[in-house]
Amino acid sequence: METAIVAGGCFWCTEAVFRDVIGVTEVESGYIGGTTENPTYKEVCTGATGHAEGVRLTYDPAVISYAQILDVFLGTHDPTQLNRQGNDVGTQYRSAIFPLDDAQRAEAEAAIVRAGEANTAPVVTTIEGPATWYPAEDYHQEYWEGEGQRNPYCMAVIPPKLMKLRKSFQNAVKSEKA
């Protein structure tokens, strides 16, 4: 099993997408890329800590490659919006990849080039790190599966991302039985 860390706006949205991706066995929401140790959600939301809302994925590279993970990531959020995703504005919602080694860094650079070819606007996704990962509070984990389906924001934002996943990355979607 291998690990990938990405930040693409609201972590509830990114987590919901990757829970439906084949080969991904664990998705944890958290904070990365800032200066405050053990930040809280309230602190990160101010934008003052420098952290991004991100997800840490555990995946099976025999099922899905890191390059494919990055293509799904860059294809299911808008990598051309600087420090925002839709109505979520601030550096905590930036689009960023946090490679864990030189090989992941090279794959991240290649993925950004591919995303640039697929978008008409410039891709602003950054490659950051190394940086310390901080898991988000328990109530943020598996948010879409519970509270998120009663949250108007999530109901407006997550289903279109899941539809984009199913349309653009059909071979990467878990079957309904999984």
UniProtKB/TrEMBL annotation:
<feature type="domain" description="Peptide methionine sulphoxide reductase MsrA">
    <location>
        <begin position="3"/>
        <end position="154"/>
    </location>
</feature>
<dbReference type="InterPro" id="IPR002569">
    <property type="entry name" value="Met_Sox_Rdtase_MsrA_dom"/>
</dbReference>
<dbReference type="InterPro" id="IPR036509">
    <property type="entry name" value="Met_Sox_Rdtase_MsrA_sf"/>
</dbReference>
<comment type="function">
    <text>Has an important function as a repair enzyme for proteins that have been inactivated by oxidation. Catalyzes the reversible oxidation-reduction of methionine sulfoxide in proteins to methionine.</text>
</comment>
<comment type="similarity">
    <text>Belongs to the MsrA Met sulfoxide reductase family.</text>
</comment>
<keyword id="KW-0560">Oxidoreductase</keyword>
<feature type="active site">
    <location>
        <position position="10"/>
    </location>
</feature>
<protein>
    <recommendedName>
        <fullName>Peptide methionine sulfoxide reductase MsrA</fullName>
        <ecNumber>1.8.4.11</ecNumber>
    </recommendedName>
</protein>
<dbReference type="Pfam" id="PF01625">
    <property type="entry name" value="PMSR"/>
</dbReference>
<dbReference type="GO" id="GO:0008113">
    <property type="term" value="F:peptide-methionine (S)-S-oxide reductase activity"/>
</dbReference>
